[in-house]
Every structure is written in C-alpha cells, then in structure tokens.
Design a protein that fits this description.
The complex is a heterodimer of chains A (about 575) and B (about 400).
Chain A lengths: L2 H9 L2 H22 L8 H8 L1 H33 L3 H16 L2 H12 L4 H9 L12 H26 L3 H8 L4 H29 L3 H6 L7 H10 L4 H22 L9 H4 L10 H12 L1 H10 L14 H26 L16 H8 L1 H34 L5 H9 L6 H15 L5 H25 L3 H9 L4 H30 L2 H6 L7 H9 L5 H10 L1 H6 L7
Chain B lengths: L1 H5 L13 H10 L4 E10 L2 E11 L4 E5 L6 H9 L6 E6 L2 E2 L10 E4 L11 H11 L4 H14 L15 H13 L5 E5 L7 H18 L2 E6 L2 H7 L2 E6 L2 E6 L1 H6 L4 H6 L4 E11 L2 E6 L4 E5 L9 E6 L4 E3 L14 E13 L3 E8 L2 E8 L12 E7 L4 E4 L1
Parallel strand pairs in B: 3-8, 3-9, 6-7, 7-8
Antiparallel strand pairs in B: 1-2, 1-4, 4-5, 9-10, 11-12, 11-14, 12-13, 14-20, 15-19, 16-17, 16-19, 17-18
Helix pairs in contact in B: 4-5, 4-6, 5-6
Classes of the chains: A mainly alpha (about 575), B alpha+beta (about 400).
Amino acid sequence: MDTTSSRLNKAMILPALLFLLILFYFPLAFIAGLSVNAPNLSAANYERFLANETMLRVGLRTFLYAGLVTVTCRVLGYPLAVFLSRMAKAGRSYLLVCVILPYLTSLLVRTYAWMILLSDHGLINSALLGVGIIDRPLPLLYSTFGALVGMVHLVLPAMVLPIYAVVHGMNPEQMRAAKALGGGPLRSFLEVFLPQTLPGVRAGCILVFAISLGFYITPAALGSPRDLMLSNIIAKLVESLLDFGYASAISVILLAATIIVYAFLGGGLGGMVKGGAQGSSGGERRASLPSRMAKAVGNAGPMAGLQRWLWDRNIGRSARHALPFHVLWYAFSILTLLFLILPSVVVVIMSFTGEDTLGFPPESWSLRWYKTFFANRTMTNAAITSFWIAISSSLLALFLGITASYALVRGNIRGSQFLYTLILAPMIIPSVVAAVGIYKVFAAWGIIGSVPGVLLAHTPGSLAYVVIILSGTFMGLDRRLEMASASLGASRLRTMFRVVLPLVAPGILAAGIFSFIHSFDEIVITSFVAGVTLQTLPQQIWLIIQYQIDPQIAAVSTMIMILPFIALPFFRRR
Amino acid sequence: MTGEASSADHASGPRDGATRAQATAAEATGSVSAEFIGVTKSFGQVNALEDVSLAIRPGEFLTLLGPSGSGKSTLLTLLAGFDQPTSGTITIGGKEQTRVPPNRRNQGIVFQSYALFPHMSVHDNLAYPLSARGIRGAEREQLIHQALERVRMSGYGGRYPSQLSGGQQQRVALARAIVFNPPLLLMDESLSALDRNLREEMQFELKELHERLSATIVFVTHDQAEAVTMSDRIAVLNKGRLVQLAPPATLYKEPVNTFVARFLGEANLIEGIVDSHDGEYVRLTTTTGHGLLAMSKRKHSRGERVITMVRPEGVECALIRSTDRGAAADAVKSLPATVERVVFLGDFHRYWLRVNDVQLIMKAPCSARNRTLEPGDRLDLSIHASDLRVIEA
C-alpha cells in the first residue's frame, strides 16, 4: 500500500494503546511505586512480607495449588484433547461445545455450581450415602479438596484447547505412516505422536499455572480459611486494613511471578501471532524477552486454540486410528467431559426445585426461584446495571479492538509482538493486582462507584478478547480483496465499509459477545471499583453465596448460562 | 499485429525488438500507454528491480515473463500502484503517476486468486467499481450486462462467487476488471490457478477479448508456453533486470543470451571460436573441432569465443530423411554424432545425441516416412546456418 495509508494503518493502534497505558499500565506502575513508598523509598513492605511466616506460607500455598491444578489438568486434559481431535467431525463439534461452554460460562456460576455439588446434601454426598459407602456426609465443601476441584474445573478448558489445536493441526497420515513403518500403536504414539503434541501441552500448562496463581473467588468460596491464596490476602489487606503499601508489595510479587512464568517458561507452539498465519510451529529462533512473552501469551491463550478451531478453514481431517488402550482412553475422556458439564447441568436442574434447600435430587419442582429473582428489586436492578455496563464496555472495546487489530495485522508495525503482549496482558495478569492499582488511581480521579468508572475498568479485559479474536479474523482476510477494491477505484473508506467490515462481521459479533460476557461476569475488579453505591449482578451473587447456598442464585445462574449459547452459532464454521 | 490495428489514434508504433532507445522513441511519438523509466525497487539490501525501462504500447498484449523472483510481479505491483519504486518514474497515459495510489489509476486488475468479494453477488462485484466512479442506474446496469456478455457469463449476475467454478470465477474477475473500460488491464498470473484444459480455453478467449476490447493488456506469467501463444511482445526478466523485449518469434529465434535461449524452449548451445566473419555469416570452429556456419547480428573478430544456439528442430539428420533445404551446400555443415537415448513423444521423437563431449537434442517428427534411430546409431547431423545463431560472445 502507499505510504500514507500504511502510516494510517499504523496509527490505528494508538487509541487502544493510549487507553491501556492510562487505564491499565499506569495503575500497575502506580502500585509498583506505592509498594516501595512506605512512606519514604524503602523495601520495608517487601521485608515485612519475607519476615512474616503466615504470608510466606500463603505464598508457598499459592504456588503449590497452582502446581497441583496444573498437573491435574494435564492428566485430565491431554487424553480429552486427543480424544476430541480424533472424533468424527459431526460428533466432535458437539463434544467441543462441552469444553467451550464451561469456558464461556460465568466463573461465579461455575463456582456456585460446585457449592451445590459439594454441599452436605449435594449430588456427591447424596450419591455416596445412597450407595452406602459412607454413613454421614463428607465435608467436601469449604475444604482444600473442594477448592482444588473447583479450580481444576475452571481452568481445564485452558489446558484442553491449546492441546486440541496442536493435535488438530497434525497430519493424521503421520500416524498411518508410523504404523506402516512397523511401529505398534504404543510405539507410534510415544515416538511419533506424543513429542509433536508437547508444544500444546507446554502452552496449556503455562496458561493454567499462570491463571491459577491469580485465583481469588474460587478458594474463597469453596475452600476453608486455610486455603486462601495471595489474591485473597491482597484483597483482605485492602478491604479491611486499608494497608495499600503492603498490598501493593504483595501484588508486585504476584505480578512478577506471573510474568516470570510467561516470559521464561513461555514460547513454543507457533501460534496465532504471525506464526499462526502460516501455520508453522517450527523454526524457533532465539527471541527477545518481549517477543517471547508475546508469543507465550498470544499462542498459549485458550483463545488461540479456540480461534484456530474457529477460523482455520482446513477441513477437519478426522482419522480414527486406534489410540493405545483406546477403550480406557475413551472412557476416561468421557468421564472428564462429564466432569466439565455436570456442574452446569446440576445448576439448571436445581433452579427448578420447589424446596427451600438445594438437596439433590429435588423433591418437588417449581418456578418459584425465578419468581423470587424477578420480584427482588435489588437483584433485577443489579442485572440491569450489569447489562448496560457490559454493553457500553463491549462497544468501547470493539472500537478500540477493531482499530488495534487492523493496525497489528496490516500496519506492518515494528515491535508488533510487544504490542500484542501489552494488549493481551490484561487477560493474564491476576485481576486482584490490576484491581488494587485501578482502585487507587480511580479514587484519585473520583470515579469510584460510578458507571463510567466500572465500565472503563472492565474494558482492558474485554479489549484483550476482542483483539485476540479479531486479529485472527483480519489475518484470515485475504489482503488482495482490499487491493482489488483499491484497483477498482474505491477509496479507503469505501473499502473499509463495503469490503473489510462486512467480511469480518461474524468475527466482530463473536468478539462483541465475548467482551459482553467478560464484562457481565467481572467480579474482582468490580468489587474494588464499584464502591458501595453501585451494585452489579455478580456483586450481588457473590454477596449472597459467600453466606448461603440460595436456590435463587441457581435461577439467576441458569439465565446467565443462556449467554454463551448466543455465542455458540459463531463457532460453527460455515 | 493487433497492437497496431486497434490503436488507430496512435498511428505508428515501433516494430519488433524494441530496445531502450526505441522505447524512448516511442514515447516521443506519443504511442505509449505506460512507461517505466529507470525504475529500481529495493527491499532492504535486495534489489527486486534494477534500472528497468520499458514502454508499453497502446493496444498491445505485453507479457512480463521470468522465473520466480525475477521481478515480474514487482513490476506489475508498481504499475498497479500497490507499491512505489525506490527510484525511477512510472508514467501512465503520458502522465507521471509514480506515487498515485491504486484507486486513482483507473486500471483493471485481474488477480491470481481472482479476489472476488465473497459477500457480494456477481452483479454487485461488477457494480462495485462503477459506483465507486459515481455511475448509477440504467447506465450501470447496461455496463454490467455488457461486461458479463463479453466474458460469456450473462445470467450469472445473481450468483455468489462460491457458487461458481474456477473458470467462471476467472471470467467474472475479468468482467469486473473491464466493466469500467480501463485503458490498461493488468493480469497477475491470472490463469495459473486453472487446470490445463480450462487454461488453454481461457487463453484463447482472452486473446479474442483483447482483440475486441482494444485495451492494453499487461500479463504476468512464469509459463513460457502461455507467454508465447498470447503475447504481441514479451519482456523477459531475470534477477530484477529486463533481459529482452521482443515479439515471441524473435525471442525464440534470436535470444540475446543463453538465459533467454534456455528459458524460452529448448536450446542446444555450442561453443566455438570465430574463424571469419562475412556480413551476417560467421564461420567458426566448435570446441569439438568441427567447422560450422552461423548467423550473427554483431561484429566478431577472428579468434573470438562465441556461444551459438540451435533449437532441437533445427538439428537435422540425413539418416532420417534427406534434407530438402540443404541445397546450399556451403550453408550446411555436418557433425558426426552418436545416438544416446530416444524418447517417443507421440508426434515427435526426441533424441539425445553426442558429438564428442557436447550433448545435443534433436526433435524429429514421427511420420511413417521417418525411421526411428536406436541408441548407438552413428549419424551425420546438419545444421542450417539460419538455424544456428550466435547469442553470446
């Protein structure tokens, strides 16, 4: 393209970049400053952390739990991902939905679902009592076991999708070739198949580990007080002690840990940022830290896996060759799938209970909890507030994200990998860390407790989703269509509105729905920024489930679960 | 040629074998459709084009031919306005257009991938350039109808590109590029995506269309057979340089160097030393020690080393049948050769022959009157002086 238009293409990154610098990176820098300003420049806050045995134990626990969750996800996720990619096409898309749906379902809803399942009268205890293995309910809820099960359930899709993406991209003839060359199923699997899937496994592990470091809601809701993690401590320091210096220091430690996991363990899996366009996973060169980070973030994102599945026009080459121990393998995969979808199903069932408690199975059926919800002004008002915030945050994220993605794909910007990292980072950085910074900065600006404040705080996260989806969409858009349009005499504006935007419309819609769901579900940053006056739906739900297992929440949750179904048609390849 | 026939307003175009001097002369007479003047394009350290000067005549079918990486696509990209040269000038219709963006150049472009807008019907694809030019209503419909008729796609207006076959998409892409009657039509490897039969059909149709449209066509291809059948003139590019610009027959018969000789068809190269030079005829002794008579357009001095070229069909052999044009005994010299390998091609036999350490290829028609040679056969070859050209000194 001519020089003026390419300059314009580059400039389109600016709105998103400015937005993030002011509303995301400035707050992060702010807490970094706060952490060493106690009140004069000193490392006192860090020394306090290192000297405090309880704190160190929490820190250690955070890493331990993240590790446990990662290992469990790997054990459960790998067979499932391979199983899914080997399925025939028709069945596969339905089963994949079972992985995608939980991923799109509200984190609070899923946590709540586990509360129902794990409670003394919940499905698990009822079943065990019924069979007669136990004679009194196991204390599953508010235990380490409960917290870990909940966390594994939450992040398992983030393990399955990157592995799925890699396996799906492999040439199935390789396995046939391996067999033709005389390898038995086990040998072919170990020597040919497994090594090639390792980049996906690695990506999945890094992603799961980093997300797990930042867990906040789940340990608080499902675990005992001895299961709290660093995020919970940070929130507690801010909420009840107002000790921002100390909270900031711990935030910086958590942030550093997350960045280290990404930067130094990251890499591998030639993914969506540039490499993905060519579909190559080889040719790893020594890359600079920012570009490695970008790769790790961009590539490892569960979105990347999802995205490949979405936009990769390769015809699904399904080849069902026998995997080793395939009966066991299939059974194990199906059980894992059940584990993924069962909580959602139970929530839907429980929402129609006629009882006051959530014993399973319900003894009578009714719509009374739906009625309760709609009669509850606090809840409905909160839902309306959340709706408007989510709509406006998505529109803002779409505007920033469309321009930024176009610039990243077409602008030929030097250092675009680093820019990718900057834009996608809000997806990875623990919400509590961002929340502390944003809270401090927004308080100074006086926008705590206002709708604009909350929607601005939601937008960095939404923007990351928009960019990861739309940059893939723009990559899939044949550049020659734009060239053809220009050659036919169309101005840039006409090309944009008549050719580019209509062609990426499905991607824009999908991105919009994703960012809507993200904002509608956001609880951590919201609980800091919304103050006491503004109440969103997730805040209300969180408020209630911290103290009781209210069937009303099952009704709300069921309605919230309709959202991802709206998004599903966009995942079907046309 | 069609070039002259269809460009009535630009009376006298220079004839074959345009060199840079002739190209400049053409500019002086005003019969130039577009021109590259000293164009260089670098990507970092690499020169994709080096000092290319080339004048395109109105109404001609000019092919840019070269191996991949020769710069032919870069040349087209610059002409289309998708990129700008590092140095040099591009004029279109007599006006300097080097840095004019593509949407203001008024050229039709047919892309290799067709680049049809998948979300628009055939009709809307064709309407697109017209509405960009403010042409609406009945006039627009008339032009669309006409263009579809020209590519024999009338009645397909309501279809979407995905509902068309490759050949049909090709036609629609062509129709879209000509619907606004651009004076210059650029085609980038436009036929390469088609299978062989369809491709030959399209070549024929395109040629016919060119004659009817009186448009100037610049066609890029790496396929020399395609270039030869379709073009009025071919510009052969190699390593970013324009090597030769001439009508196909001239390129074939009188290539300027071994690259062109080898790139266009099969070439037997014979090295030798000049004994004497008399007008167009050069008498030389080959490295194998045989005397030959060749044609040359250059001046040669005694003792100079030269490379001569003869096409496989120019190699003849008395054993097969007596040559009917070898009457002028002084023009034909004979070489003793041995048959090494024979391949039957249906209409022809291809023979690999050896003259000492030089290998030659000979093509002989398989007619009932000709006998087939066997490996090991010894024979005398004759090469008529007019078939043997000095191509490099």
